[in-house]
């Protein structure tokens, strides 16, 4: 059975710190740490009409560490003394693992976010948006309905003094 821990690290340096921890552990021959994860997700965005997918950290400033049950103090000392590591989360001086339910939820979230790109901008009902593409460029409207699976919005726009509903793609609008 493995245990999962959360390590607070310097934001923006997660990958570098992950490599430092893995390097330190491999140099000492330590096999109690199974893996060190930087939780990332694919983010879809459109620039100049081209849809691109980029990686984004969804827990910036944190690493997830999976270990064996029997982790000794020397291993935690190696991790804690790595440049850029602030602390291993837990009560007192001893790191506390996530509960079984929390660990399962975390693993499920990581897997879900790997499978499908999420939009770069999250829209909410009632948000004010400006149309950036299509026949209604520069019109401003209010988000009425959101379909995240199809990446489509229904927007209420005033045209000739009358409220009209338009259905547009996420990439055709920007939040105001």
Automatic annotation (TrEMBL):
Keywords of the record: Transcription, Transcription antitermination, Transcription regulation, Transcription termination
Domain of life: Bacteria
InterPro entries: KOW, NGN, NGN-like_dom, NGN_dom_sf, NusG-like, Rib_uL2_dom2, Transcrpt_antiterm_NusG, Translation_prot_SH3-like_sf
GO biological process, one term: regulation of DNA-templated transcription elongation
The protein's role, per its UniProt record: Participates in transcription elongation, termination and antitermination.
Residues in KOW domain copies: 122-149
SUPFAM superfamilies linked to this entry: N-utilization substance G protein NusG, N-terminal domain, Translation proteins SH3-like domain
Chain's gene name: nusG
SMART domains in the record: KOW, NGN
Keyword Phosphoprotein appears in the UniProt entry: no
Lineage: Bacteria, Bacteria division TA06
Source organism per UniProt: candidate division TA06 bacterium ADurb.Bin131
Domain NusG-like N-terminal stretches: 1-110
A GO CC annotation given for this chain: cytosol
Keyword Transcription carried by entry: yes
Membership in a protein family: Belongs to the NusG family.
Coiled coil: none
Name this polypeptide is given: Transcription termination/antitermination protein NusG
